Amino acid sequence: MATAKPKTFPIEVQARPGLMLGMPAERFLRDYWQKRPLLIRGAFAGFQTPVQPEDLAGLACEEGALARIVSHDPATDAWTLRTGPFNEEDFPGMPDHDWTLLVQDVDKWDADVRALVDHFGFLPRWRMDDVMISFAATGGGVGAHVDQYDVFLLQAHGRRRWKIDASESTKGKRPPLGFRDDVELKLLKSFKPTHDWVLEPGDMLYLPPNVPHDGIAVDPCLTFSFGMRAPSSAELISDWLDDLVADADEAIRYQDPDLKLPADPNEIDAAAMARVVAALNALRMNDPDRLGDWFGRFITTYRAAGDILPSQAPPAPEEVETVLAEGGLLERHPWARLAWRRASRGASLYCSGRNFALPVKDAQTLAAAERLDDTAFARLSAKGRAAVLELLAGGHYQLLDAETLAAMLAEQDALDVMEEAFDEDADAPEFEIEVMEYTEAGAGEPASAAIDTVQVSEEGVEVVVICDDGDDRG
Fold first, then answer.
1. Residue 375 — φ and ψ, nearest 5°?
2. What is the pLDDT of residues 354-385, one digit of tens each?
3. What is the pLDDT of residue 5?
4. Contact between 365 and 377 (Cβ < 8 Å)
5. 339: exposed, middle or buried (C-beta count within 10 Å: 0-12, 13-18, 19+)?
6. What's the CA gap between 353 and 331, in Å, rounded?
7. Is the peptide bond before 334 cis (omega within 30 degrees of 0)?
8. Is 234 in contact with 242 (CB distance < 8 Å)?
9. Using H for helix, E for strand and C for coil, what is the string for 300-346?
10. Is the CB of residue 302 less than 8 Å from the CB of residue 227?
11. How are strands ordered across the β-sheet holding 78-83?
12. d(CA 380, CA 390)
């Protein structure tokens, strides 16, 4: 009798219109998710990076940004790690090879990067941890390593060579995962790749946990890393027990009213252990609602978030309704993480470690929407509106009036015009520079030349520069 051949799974596929993964999401989850790696060519066809290397460097200088620079000396195989925030002066002197800048949580700082997360709607949104972006000079990388979580690596600009060891999923042989002890980075002692690819912009590599990999820039490049949150069992039990202890009833104690004469008074017997379990269960460790509420608070508390603080005094409910009616919006703070869960009655909404008992429709609406307009707010129940107002008072939402929104839109339009005018890939536009007025600095005034204002319109770009002819020579 012939035996069926084991099913094989391609490790490289081509994306198709409507199939970012090169296959239906159901098949990806069944055959690849947390099982085997997959390279998807053209996952983001025609991808244009919303973040340039200089933008990333600027973000790495911001207070509160989580940034690192990893440098490698190929001659000695020495690695160095520096942590940010950095100074603007740090970057012009960097070499043109063998270093990488990594900035985490870029989705919290940039709305265009955050919008990319919507492409991963086939996964629970609360599982997405952050979008880390790395810029690597030619030859730059962070060495062969493993991650303890799932990651999607999108090539955004330039080319990067990825080598991976897929022997566990292809041959059933677990690779060695020991770390080097001569560097502060967790780099693998041994790395024998089974696959070697060069990724172009728009290509994406999916890696399950514990797949050894090493990415090296072929030329200066940007890589977007969509990482999933995967708390360890120790992290889960520690936080769960903290929650239990905080609300524990001191009256709940070990009891043994059924105590029998012990065969050996020094023995902790099976009956004693059964009473220990009963005492622990009395803390409601098996209560699904209590467990669910704890996990909702836990998983929406971002591991590295700065404090979310209100940027304005809490407005009165009447003021909120008026601003929304006049075209304003409630905008969610980018650091706020929301999720919801069906409870024994209705639903629980979780936001950055807080929970609210709400109707299911309210919980679904608030967890999904980053902005609420007048219509969306009015459709919420009284409980839902009260929850939003409480979150607004805590800084998790910001109330933006119509005037502010119009100014923000105008600023974005101006930036779009500037980006289009200076697009390196487009035909160079013709500029006619006309000096409208020139005023020399007066006697005793310091020599200077500075841009005063920039105004962008359909007719062109007007730049007002204040300058003088000082006699000093540099």
1. -65, -50
2. 999 999 999 999 999 999 999 999 999 999 99
3. 66
4. no
5. buried
6. 19
7. no
8. no
9. CCCCCCCCCCCCCCCCCHHHHHHHHHCCCEEEECCCCCEEEEECCCC
10. no
11. 12-14, 38-41, 204-207, 151-157, 221-228, 128-136, 99-103, 67-73, 78-83
12. 14
* Token output for 451: 């841009």
Secondary structure of 386-435 in the HEC alphabet?
HHHHHHHHCCCEEEECHHHHHHHHHHHHHHHHHHHHCCCCCCCCCCCCCC
**Are 396 and 333 within 8 A, CB to CB?**
yes
Residue 244 is which amino acid? Answer: L
Give CA 237 to chain center in angstroms.
24
* Alpha-carbon gap, residue 51 to 224, rounded angstroms: 10
Residues 93/57, Cβ–Cβ less than 8 Å: no
Q: Could you identify the residue written with the tokens 């919290």?
A: 108
Q: Is 90 exposed, middle or buried (0-12, 13-18, 19+ CB in 10 A)?
A: middle
Dist CA 11 CA 196 (whole Å): 12
Intervals of the chain under pLDDT 70: 1-6, 284-286, 303-307, 415-474
* Tokens describing residue 191: 């790395």
**What is the SS3 assignment for the chain?**
CCCCCCCCCCCEEECECCECCCCCHHHHHHHCCCCCCEEEECCCCCCCCCCCHHHHHHHHCCCCCCEEEEEEECCCCEEEEEECCCCHHHCCCCCCECEEEEECCHHHHCHHHHHHHHHHCCCCHHHEEEEEEEEECECCCCCCECCCCCEEEEEEECCEEEEECCHHHHHCCCCCCCECCCCCCCCECCCCCCEEEEECCCCEEEECCCCCEEEEECCCEEEEEEEECCCCHHHHHHHHHHHHHHCCCCCCCCCCCCCCCCCCCCCCCHHHHHHHHHHHHCCCCCCHHHHHHHHHHHHCCCCCCCCCCCCCCCCCHHHHHHHHHCCCEEEECCCCCEEEEECCCCEEEEECCEEEEECHHHHHHHHHCCEECHHHHHHCCHHHHHHHHHHHHCCCEEEECHHHHHHHHHHHHHHHHHHHHCCCCCCCCCCCCCCCCCCCCCCCCCCCEEEEEEEEECCEEEEEEEECCCCCCC
Q: How many CA within 13 A on the CB side of residue 234?
A: 0
Query: What is the model's pLDDT at position 434?
Result: 53
How far apart CA 240 and CA 324 sit, in angstroms, is 39
Q: Quote the pLDDT of residue 473.
A: 38
Residue 6 tokens read as 């084991």
Which residue in this structure is represented by tokens 């195989």? 77
In the numeric block, the tokens 């024998």 are attached to 192
Residue whose token pair is 């390196």: 424
